Amino acid sequence: xxxxxxxxxxxxxGGRGIGREIALALARAGLxxxxxxxxxxxxxxVAAAARGLGGRALALELxxxxxxxxxxxxxxxxxxxxxVDVLVNNAGIAESAPLLAxxxxxxxxxVRINATGPFxxxxxVLGAMLARRWGRVINIASLVGLHGAPYVTAYxxxxxxxxxxxRALALExxxxxxxxxxxxxxxxxxxxxxxAARHIEAKTGRSFDExxxxxxxxxxxxxxxxxxxxxxxxxxxxxxxxxNGEAIVLDGGAPAQEASMARELQFHNPPGLxxxxxxxxxxxxxxxxxxxxxxxVAKDKDGRTxxxxxxxxxxxxxxxxxRTVVAAAGGQxxxxxxxxxxxxxxxxxxxxxKAIGAVYREYFGRHFPAMTLVGARDLYDAADGCLLEIxxxxxxx
Length: 397
Ligand code: NAP
Prior knowledge:
The protein is an alpha/beta fold. It has helices at about 15-30, 40-50, 65-80, 105-130, 145, 155-175, 190-205, 210-220, 225-240, 255-260, 310-330, 345-350, 355-365; strands at about 10, 30-35, 55-60, 85-90, 135-140, 180-185, 245-250, 265-270, 280-285, 290-295, 335-345, 370-375, 390-395. It folds into 2 domains: about 10-185 and about 225-265, 3-Layer(aba) Sandwich (Rossmann fold), CATH 3.40.50; about 265-395, CATH 3.30.1330.40. Strand 1 (about 10), helix 1 and strand 2 form a beta-alpha-beta unit. Helix 7 crosses helix 8 and helix 11 (about 310-330) runs parallel beside helix 13. The two termini are about 35 Å apart. Residues about 255-260 have low confidence and may be disordered.
């Protein structure tokens, strides 16, 4: 059997900091990477390191503030490595000043680089992703793109725009093999933070170390986030086909080790097997927290059977109960990895397949765990009225 094609990633701002770490994590995971930014020497160094990990890599000069530069970089990537499967919109700038001291050019620069740039690069690669029915767009936004912060109106507005782009595009492409997500980190240990600390030093007279420490304290975990933690989340998003339209917060709240163990789900539907319709052949989990659930039947909180004799109504109640259990553990139904459905009357269940499928999609969307249907004729007493039961497990982020 021919080896599956290697995926191709384009990482903007891949020359240093978070982008460098993401480019190398993707190369380590077996992707070919195009590393793009304005500083030639930096992108060449990262591309050389990526090649050292065994894959193909390309260094590209790119200014995401310039449409022609974007067109050239995308064309060069396609010519050298093939069409882009994974786009990481990471290039970004951050300058701080009170609003009254923010010149219109500063505002324009942030919007152009942090929001219009990702829009243009995405526009250049999305058509080919949709045509191949596989793609990942990962936008490196910021906590500030969700909540705001003082003295960074231009930066905050541009990152809010990037989160908005993420959410709207995710809905637009849902169900077509392409996912669009944003990662929203707090302060990360990169040049961007070091130059902010120098700026604070110059403006306030506080020392560089004090300025860094004050930024670390703003993160809920009281520490700076490591670029590798952001890269681990980006890699998990590449492997996850279920998450779409999310703005994933990374605030240093978890200890470094735990955060770098961010959940990864990899769905295995090998082309040599029968096409998996409505289920997944195999799901591999790495990191995350496992939640086992059992005995979910169509009973309400007082133990009364809901929808007696109606397998569709009971399936809905089971989904409802399951959602409650997973939510209590901090997850959602998209985290369910393995599901076994035991039914009293398999023939009746199959007869109602269409209606049950509609309820399933209402709760689970297009997320298909590894699923098993078991007919168990003497599962319950007739008096109990339960027609089905569910158990399985979820892998929570
Ligand atoms: P960094 O170390 O300054 O790296 C930024 C990267 O973006 C560099 O490779 C830079 O390379 C590139 N870049 C900047 N302007 C560009 C342009 N016009 N065209 C192409 N590339 C450009 O900063 P970082 O912390 O890794 O930041 C990466 C992303 O994470 C940014 O979007 C940032 O907003 C976001 N973020 C950072 C933090 C943080 O605390 N560090 C927190 C939340 C979000 P050149 O200058 O050579 O072009």
